[in-house]
Amino acid sequence: MDKEKRLERVKELIKELRICSLDGAVVVVEGRRDEHTLRKLGVTGRIVFATHDPVFSFSEKLSQMNNEIIILTDWDTAGEKLAKKLMQHLQSFGVVPTMRFHRLLSSLVRKDIKDVEGLDSYIDRLEYHAYPSANRQYRKNYTL
Predict the structure, then answer these.
(1) Quick one: DSSP state of residue 98?
(2) Which domains are delineated in the chain?
(3) Residue 77: Cβ-neighbour burial (10 angstroms; 0-12, 13-18, 19+)
(4) Helix 100-109 and helix 119-130: axis angle, to 10°?
(5) pTM
(6) Residue 53: Cβ-neighbour burial (10 angstroms; 0-12, 13-18, 19+)
(7) Nearest-5° angle of CA 46, CA 86, CA 97?
(8) Which terminal residue of the chain has fewer beta carbons within 10 Å of its beta carbon, N or C?
(9) Residue 15: helix, strand or coil by DSSP?
């Protein structure tokens, strides 16, 4: 997939995530930097940290929220393990969380970044390389 298509697909997924968040979905991330990045990307709804409580009790609290749960942990080994544990525990409480964003973003960016906090700079890099003529014009205007 070329950089332009990859960029557009990542942007589409972020837009969908924003909409789900506005509709009340709870986005589960690993830490504050992940939250900060999602806020910069326009996600305004509820974001919670999976690493502040034991996984079982955290999952129990999530299951009582009666909201869609979107798991968006990092794409490294630790993030994958955490996502798997969350899935198992939430399902034991009768909740089926959404892993779609995690799975699709991972397939698009895994070669280049390993975590949610890197998404904004990744998008910036893709834009820079996907539209080089626009960037040359920007640099020309910026240096004047």
Answers:
(1) B
(2) 3-143 (3.40.1360.10)
(3) exposed
(4) 50
(5) 0.87
(6) middle
(7) 60
(8) C
(9) helix
